[in-house]
Amino acid sequence: MKTGRRADGDMPLMQLRWVLLASLLLAACGPSRTSRQGEPRHYAQAMDSATSACLRNPACYTATGEDAILPWLSRAASAVRTTAAMMRLLEAADIERVEGILSECASEANGHVNEQRYGKGGWPTPEQCKEAVTSPWGQKETRAEELGRLKHEVALECARQKLKDAFAGNYSIEPRYFRDPGKGLRLISPTQVAEWLQDGLFHLLAGTLVPDVVIHSTNEPLKVQAVYDFKFPCPLDNEPSWRRNPSGPPFYAKHQGLIYHEALGGMKPAMVAPGHGIKRQ
User: Looking at the DSSP assignment, which residues form a beta bridge with residue 273?
Assistant: First the structure.
């Protein structure tokens, strides 16, 4: 008696199962009969001959028994594993490196703008931070707000340049999110935002969230891992703090950090400030 073999042949039963599976996969993945009518006949014959020869040749199997598999199935499985590995969250060591880069960018932006305004080694006094000025858009703001806006621009460009090589696909700069009660979290593209602004549809941006830097699963900004906002206290020895949302829907008087966490998930959002580093509150 031949255990594990069919009564009508010498091929092991497990190998025969893989042959049948491979045939089904080839039939499912290959072009339809209609599409193959336009192909050169010798091409189709070459494919069929190669397949048949491999199926008859034991050397085509990469293993035996339960793990027996054909080479192209092995390659396909490998490709799936590679794709899954590429779509990943960052490791703890990578997050630490990201936070180091963001801290450097905050310090560089702070020093660059202060030097432009107050000379080498200079910084604004508490009195200067409170000065009333007018923004380029004609709005009233304090000197602290003006400096913070300018420093943000420098810090964000620094983050773009320093993160792009090592963490491409795992971060977004100033993404705009909206949590739709009926559809869940969604991302609004910069093109869409520009169109709404151009058309004066400002109300469509109400309730949207724009963190400075978001770390996420590879090429999937909706799968948030960590959220960071640059903060530039004026004067520098002030503690960085989350801005509170004005009273009213959809977030009422909650502060930014809590809103980010509730809407986006991920680890507890962090502030990045010169002289203070990474702070979570």
Answer: 277
For the chain, how long is the longest CA-to-CA vector? 98
200-233 confidence digits (pLDDT tens): 898 888 889 999 999 999 999 999 999 999 999 9
* CA atoms of 204 and 167, how far apart (whole Å): 32
Report the Cα–Cα distance between both ends of the chain, in Å, rounded: 73
Q: 86: burial class by Cβ within 10 Å (0-12, 13-18, 19+)? A: exposed
Structure tokens at 242: 């989350």
Give domain limits for the chain: 13-86, 92-175+210-279
Q: How many CA atoms lie within 13 A of 236 on its CB side?
A: 16
What is the pTM for the complete model shown? 0.68
Tell me which long-range contacts 249-256 makes (C-beta under 8 A, separation of at least 24).
249/207, 250/206, 250/207, 251/207, 256/229
The pair of three-digit structure tokens given for residue 9, joined into one six-digit string: 């042949």
Q: Say what percent of the chain tops pLDDT 90.
A: 54
